[in-house]
Amino acid sequence: AMRVFVTVVDLGSQSAAADHLQLSRPVVSRYLAELEEWVGARLMQRTTRKLSLTAAGQETLPRCRQLLDLAGDLQAAVQQPQDSPKGALRISVSTSFGQAQLADAVAEYVRRYPGVKVELQMLDRTVNLVDERIDLAIRTSNDLDPNLIARRLTVCRSVICATPAYLREHGTPHRVEELSQHNCLTHAYFGHSLWHFEVGGQQIAVPVQGNISANEVMTLQNATLAGAGIAMLPTYQAATALRSGALVRLLPQARPRELNLNAVYTSRKHMPATLRSMLDFLVQRFKDEPEWDRDLY
Asked: How far apart are CA 34 and CA 45, in angstroms?
């Protein structure tokens, strides 16, 4: 019934779904009715010209996709337990995370599975997985497209930092409100003019401004290392510079907003074994407490 519901939505009509699934129209209607009875709510408004999801249908659709994918995982795991992953994977990832962390992970994966070829697309924008033929995207967000399937890999934390030289010249902020008096290097899309913190259990938003903004984290880190100002950088990027002393962590009592690091992919009837193995590998490698946060949090 869930597969019928998802197919009707994807194809736009019960007739098209019936043809695709090789079922009769009355059988499709019966499956939809059974699912609505089980959920306890009407899922679609059906007229002769238009099909639209109700609020309950919009809530139910992504969960049906997840359950169908889980069922596919179970079938594939039982049917092909000995198959070694083979084939090609296209993975989209931000330039900063790709170079700082994912490239090493992919190198380890292909050593383990030499029959797999991975193409990394380093893109600092949100891609359309279907249009750009992306098998897997790594996204840092707490607000994902509900039509995509996501597996959480780990947490993405950030730190406020600057060079010792900048702090000697301009002073060290001791309260988050003092950041407004400094040259803050900002990300063009994330926290561009407002940085969010948790301090002593309270949520605080601090307006910031500066003379350098960039849409890519490595560029901000390089500008920070050059002494240009104070930046909020993800720990996966800044950990090495912090441990070496090239950057100094500021305001440790203030915790910038944490985001989830997710692996997302489109809903598919049967997930390829290669994609499934890559997901499992990344989940295992990037655990809830990532290695790069050691000694920082």
From this structure: 15
Question: What pTM value is reported for the model?
Answer: 0.68
Query: What pLDDT digit, counting tens, does each position of 103-147 carry?
Result: 999 999 999 999 999 999 998 788 888 778 899 999 988 888 888
CA 192/CA 177 separation, integer angstroms: 16
Identify the CATH number of the domain defined by range 87-155+259-293: 3.40.190.10
Q: Using an 8 Å Cβ cutoff, are 27 and 21 in contact?
A: no
Which tens digits make up the pLDDT trace of 72-91? 767 666 655 456 788 899 99
Q: What is the DSSP string of 53-99?
A: E-HHHHHHHHHHHHHHHHHHHHHHHHH-TTPPP-EEEEEEE-HHHII
Residue 290 phi, psi dihedral angles, 5° rounding: -65, 150
Element (H, E) at 160: strand 158-162
Note the CATH number of domain 2-79: 1.10.10.10
C-alpha neighbours within 13 Å on the C-beta side of residue 226:
9
Residue that is written with structure tokens 């993800």 in the block: 234
3-state secondary structure of 230: strand
